[in-house]
Amino acid sequence: MNEAVAVDQIDWSVGIPMTAGPYFVGLYQPSPETAGFWEGVTAGEIRLKECKSCGRLWHPKRIVCTHCSSTDMGWKKAAGTGEVYSFSEVHRTPSPVFEASAPYTVGVVRLDEGVHLFTRFVCEPGSLQIGTRVGAEFKRMESGQLMPVFVAGGR
Amino acid sequence: MAASMASSIGSKIAIVGIGRAMAHRSDAERKTPLQLGAAAAVDAMRQAGIERRDVGALFTGRTPQSYMVLQYNQSLMNELKIGPTFCSEMTAHGAGALGGLQMAALALEAGIIDHALVVTNEASGIWMDQVGSNASWEGDLQFEAGYGATTPALYAQFACRYMHEYGITPQMCARSAVENRRWALDHPHAAMRNKGAITVDDVMSSRMIASPLRLLDCAVWYPGGIATAMVLARAQTAKDHHEEATYISGFGQCSTHEWVGERMGSSGYEPIGDEPDLINTGASVSAKQAYEMSGLGADDVDIVQTSAPFSFANLMMLEELGFCGRGEAGEFVESGGVDYDGGLPFNTNGGYLSFGQVAQGLYNLTETIDQLWGRAEGRQVDAPKIGLVHGHGGVLACHAVVIVSREQLH
User: Fold this and answer.
1) Which of A77, A121, B289, B315 is least surrounded, with the fewest CB atoms within 10 Å of its CB?
2) Which of B95, B117, B307, B370 lies closest to B229, judged by CA?
């Protein structure tokens, strides 16, 4: 996804080839069950799946509420704040386009709503710890994809 | 219910023929996984003394990374021109390799076939940039790959939590890498056999890949291809096929997630409790099933192979498979628990770290069987009777355990 594409212009049924520099790394496939998340990213929001039956919040991919078994899912805006659950500083990158950014930190953020997301942490190298408070921002990644990142000490 | 059903099958099924094929990146003629798989299959059938028409079932692991076709089992079936009445891929990432044995054992025990052929084959070390390609396969393409996550960086999430919650240190993990390397020096086909012994300091000073994982904490991709085929039959006919038939005394399997990020949305079932975490995996469930089926415990196991692709996973799996308590693997390893000299024989081919990872396969099982029958030249363990083999795939997502024995146990 090297070009900025408005979410409402994406053909969800086809997906978008995702490249990192000259390397094809796969098919980035937003689909009806995740479209709301990416619309939220375009609007500068983190949106989570919300079970319309029991009110539980889930990862944006979730189709089934495994708490009450409902498949009636909607979207709910999250505060965009949380803490570092786990992290790793990446030195060996998956493809050349990420090299200029290395080392960079990827990991799992535990949002204050209790949902965990894989993400990029924006921080000084070596500064991050489990439990560090972070806040969401939105950034076009080296792969071309506009994605949420979490900034240490933010918000 | 699963346990009682399972216990009736322990030791009822045997591996009665093993076929192998290997290729190396430096070979003048590069071989495909299908070529290797077919050669191994023919070899296994010959070893077991069966003909094409005798193969009642064919199970393969998932399609090889360097031979991506849908329904790989059909490609192999077609090549061998066999007419199985039960034929499938066992697609549980790397756990599917051992999982194929489970399918075979169940079909044999049910009496719907008399001989099963199980085949795994990979040659990705010959044909692919595995570092780049795996980064895009192990990570969710929407939610993970775009961040520049690599396979080590995804596993590192487990390492980060595991070390945090149990006080495991990088030095403790490094010690297991040192012992893995020692074993590899004695194996004629290990990727690192000519690279010499390493020390904890060597591991700790190797370059950082994805913290806390350094280069020597990581598996080396096998610079070639390996295919393994096995013929399975019911125990009562085992010795008719092969004098060195090896019995499957127990097996188990458990899958918990597909992607690391979304795993944290799982809860409420074993081994993921009410609060999801990154420190408990399906390996413990697989091992428990296999132990119950075999009537054995970890104390009865003479030799262990795991599919740990990183040094921390060596420690994590020692706990999950029951060889030490939760959080105790660091002390266990540092006090010589898996030492080449005098410890539990552990990853005796060098493991993924120093034998090399062939993406997936049954080569850890063949290592165990070679040891049980005294065929492990130069690295032979003293008369092992019971071996445990762990396979896994995804990012600690799918696990399988098989316990094999030289004699029929019951």
Assistant:
1) A77
2) B117
Q: List phi, psi (to 5°) of B397.
A: -90, -45
Predicted TM-score (pTM) of this structure: 0.94
Let me know: does B158 contact B316? Beta carbons within 8 Å. yes
The verdict on A23 touching B (C-beta cutoff 8 Å) is yes
User: Which 3 state secondary structure label does DSSP give A124?
Assistant: coil
For the CA atoms of A10, A15, A19, A20, the dihedral, rounded to the nearest 10 degrees, stands at 80
Q: Where would I find the beta strands (DSSP E) of B73-201?
A: 86-89, 116-122
Model ipTM? Answer: 0.94
Q: Search chain B and give the residue with CA nearest A91.
A: B209
Distance of alpha carbon B153 from its chain centroid, rounded?
21
Cα gap B41→B38, rounded to integer Å: 5
| Residue A23 Cα, gap to closest chain B Cα (Å) | 9
What is the CATH number that goes with domain B2-127?
3.40.47.10
Reduced DSSP (H G I as helix, E B as strand, rest coil) percent helix, strand, coil of chain A, to 5? 10, 40, 50
Q: What is the pLDDT of residues B272-286, one digit of tens each?
A: 888 889 999 999 999
Q: What residue spans define the domains of chain B?
A: 2-127
Q: Do A53 and A83 form a contact (C-beta atoms < 8 A)?
A: no
Residue of chain B with shortest Cα separation from A23 = B132
In 3-state terms, what secondary structure has residue B325?
A: coil
Instruction: Provide the residue count of chain A.
Output: 155
Enumerate the domain spans of chain A: 7-152
Residue of B135, B157, B267 lying closest to A107 (CB–CB) = B157
Chain A positions touching B143 (Cβ under 8 A) are: 60-61, 117-118
Kindly determine whether residue B262 and residue A59, on different chains, have CB atoms separated by under 8 Å: yes
Q: Mark residue B196 as left, alpha or beta (left: phi above 0; alpha: psi -120 to 50; beta: remaining).
A: left
Phi-psi label, residue B359: left if phi above 0, alpha if psi -120 to 50, beta otherwise: left
Whether the ω angle into residue B84 lies within 30 degrees of 0, i.e. cis, is no
Range scoring the smallest mean pLDDT among A8-22, B81-95, B343-357: A8-22
For B71, other C-beta atoms within 10 Å of its C-beta total: 14
* Cβ separation B278–A25 shorter than 8 A: no
**Interface size between A and B, measured as CB pairs under 8 A:** 140
Q: Is B24 helix (H, G, I), strand (E, B) or coil?
A: strand
Asked if B132's CB is within 8 angstroms of A95's CB, the reply is yes
| Phi (first) and psi of residue B300, to 5 degrees | -85, -10
Three-state DSSP string of A121-148 = EECCCCCCCCCCEEEEEEEECCCCCEEE
Using a CB–CB cutoff of 8 Å, tell me whether B170 touches chain A. Answer: no
